[in-house]
Task: structure prediction
Amino acid sequence: MKTIEVVAAMIQVEDMILVVQRKEDKKAHKSLKWEFPGGKVEEGERPKDAVVREVKEELQLDINPVAWVGRVVYEYPDIKVDLTLFHCALIDGLPILKVHNDQRWTDKSLLYTFDWSAADRELLQLAGWLG
Result:
């Protein structure tokens, strides 16, 4: 099974964290699931650079990855994902949805209320944020 390296940004402004919802998909494990914004690491790219690029491409936000949060490897039915999450500061911009269905700013205490993608859910459990 193919493994892809992906990165995600936990963008925090004061007490609020940005989460995004995937578009509807015929694959149930992806369809309308919530996740942290991010995407694939390109060949030769550093993960920190990839998260900055992906968030700019997907949401038109300028971010600064300030800390490594965690990493999980999760096997979906069709692909294995090696996911690294960075805690990021928002430098500039308002989210403009290009590839997502929805976005929300939420308090960390409410993260458990979202229907997360499986890999993101594992990261949240690892970090102790699902209560």
Summary: The longest strand covers residues 62-75. Residues 63 and 91 are 5 Å apart (CA to CA).
